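Bench notes, afternoon.
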Amino acid sequence: MSPLLDHLATKLQAKLQRYGVVVWDDHESAYGAVVEDVVPEDTTVARFDGSWFELRRTIEASLSGDSPPALLVYVPIAAPDPDPLEELRAVGAKFQLLLATAIRSGLSGQLTESRIEELGKQCSTIVEAEAAISGGGNESDARLVALVGRSSTAEIAHQLLSGEHDETIHSDQLLSVVNDFFVKALGASTATGSIAEIRRAAFRHLVLVSIESSGAELPAEVQGVHRAPTPNQRKTCLAALEALQHDRGATDELLELAENADSLLRLPLALEWHDSLMDVDATITMDEIAIREAIRRLDDGRWLDATTLAEHRLATSWWAQPNQLHTNDLPTRWRAIRAIASLHTAIAEPISKSASTIELVGWYEESGWKVDTAYRQLELLRVTAGADLNEFDELFATGRASYEDWLDRVLTQTATALANDAHLPDSKLQRHVHRMEVRNQPRTAYLLVDALRYELGHDLASRLGRLNAVVELRGAVAAVPTITPVGMAALTPGADVDYRVDLDADDRLHVALGGERVVAVPERIKRLEDAHGKVADVPLDKLAQLTNRELRKAIDGSSLVLVRSTEIDTDGESDQLAASWGSFDSILEVLHTAVARLLHAGIERVVISADHGFLAVRRLGEDRRIEKPPTGKGELHRRAWIGRGGTATESTIKIPLSDFGIAGDLDIIAPRGLGVFTSGGGLQFFHGGLSPQELIVPVITVTSSEVTAEPKYEIQLSVAGSRISTGVVAITIQMTGDLFTRESGVRVALTQNGQRIARVVGGDGYDAQTETIDAAVDSPRVITMQISENLVAGSTATLEVLDAATGVRLGAAIDVDVVANVIVEDEL
């Protein structure tokens, strides 16, 4: 560091040590290029970059911890009145030093007084002053500043490493200048050869510095030849590496440099995992050895440790970000590790041992559902990964086996509790949902979703959380048997008063409410009309295709809007579960959009519930199949027999329907554990029985906070390469808004023939919990979508973006050509 910079650094250090917080007022912008170079290593720097709001937010984040760091706030302009930093100045100290004064005091005794005065008059920035007083070898630094258009040492290193200036360096014969710079600025060893070879050598040095700076031990073969940098050189090395990774235009060069470093340093073989490497991501090898460590943790049953490692690398590693447009499957592999670990972590939580049905239901609603969600997410990732996950095959198999064992234990415990006492309070029964949530309420949309089990309801409620509404979720226990005619009738008016299940002469079940049969959709709609007046019947598929104007017209004048969805049950009953996992996820998105649009159309309240849930596992084997009851007459389903005179076995339980508060003299016989009767039907998706997954359904109420206005902004979309050629698609979202709309939540949909064919897996501003993207004016968002359906070359997909609060489409949809077949795994 030069005498002038040393002088400046000393003054700053004294201020920071005394006050902790310093506001550097540099109204002439004389020092902007060297701020990071002259502050102490443990100091946080916050710069004003045009937004006082962003600066205050950065400052507040820096000072919010238990032990606030030393903080330097650099302000290169005069503050407005009132001063946005008034409170900060009151607790900290002000630092202001005219450049001429700094030159005079910093160089006194080293230059003549006349020369010092001349520099003070001629130089407007410290970079100009440094270049003017430099001599000999230091002249090269000034030439590099002119070459790259940057003056910060770290930025010069970043620019030179990017390869952008190779041609000029070669033509201007600056190889030795660049080499000297890397030696002095980074502490690298002298290199020979072409500019590419010099850059590779410098990058290898950066890699080793990043490893040893973490506290990890360098491989033995490089310890003797690696030159340890000075503190300032170390700081420059790490800053240059970070800048290079954030330079989207240098991605290809970074890949080449990292590959060269891994090869020549033999890092894949020589470097062993150490926990201090958690934040090191100089090359892809750092993630590869981290994955090896994560798999070891999974093998050892250290689920939380594996989750912590996976989540940290997904959040921090450059190589694990899905919007890095290089060909590697690290993001998917890390998500697979997280999914496997999350499933085992959820399974490890204790199962309720209570013999009380109400307590067991409470346990499932509080925590048990999380296991089902973790399993669904694991299977969803497996079938939509678009990557080779063979290294996890045994771990996937172990996870499935553990889940099926958990299910068997939960189902057995539930059967025992129900056999002991199946009674539940009215407030927990599905038959009282209409009375409690729909009757005598403001204008309501009643969404009845076939097979929306409780854990899917949790997922949907989380997605609905971004709406301008109050979202509440509770569970209700479905009428038995858990099949559609029984459950849907239980959600209609009068089910709370007189609900009966009986057999016809041909031993087929039917439901009667107040003596009237309720068999199919027309009877259910009639009961709603008798209770509410005009009912607008809008199936979900139809609603999704209506324009906003058509939707308003369809529901105009109605007292109740009925939205019926059968998609989840239909997909599940297809017995092609590998494809259904993705369909379930897509249907939740369609439901999310439907609710947003209904609120936007003037509906004040939305109630969502289901007829029944379901069990879904990989195809059950022969050992899970049970013979039907040997006696009696009734109706047989995969998971239940309902009738008279049936006999239970050791593998089944028999409970009168009257124990569930259902009129009639029928009994239900159901498997005690994870079993199915040997009847027709699939062996992967089933319902009808008495498991929490089949019995407990969500009741979601969405109450509009206020009338949602039309969005005051538009979105422009673009696709990398303007086509789809692989299973991963990168999309850029650019927002334009009015004076008052600067940011908003949006959702992206990629469809073919109205069917969603991709899901967002990450990117700028993406919130995985609500599956929305925080779009912002002047801040393009690059997100990554993963194709989830097979695509045929020559076809076309449609890309559109929707306002998260209203479901309104923003801007024009764009067509994207599919130029290569994209195959998604559909058999497990």
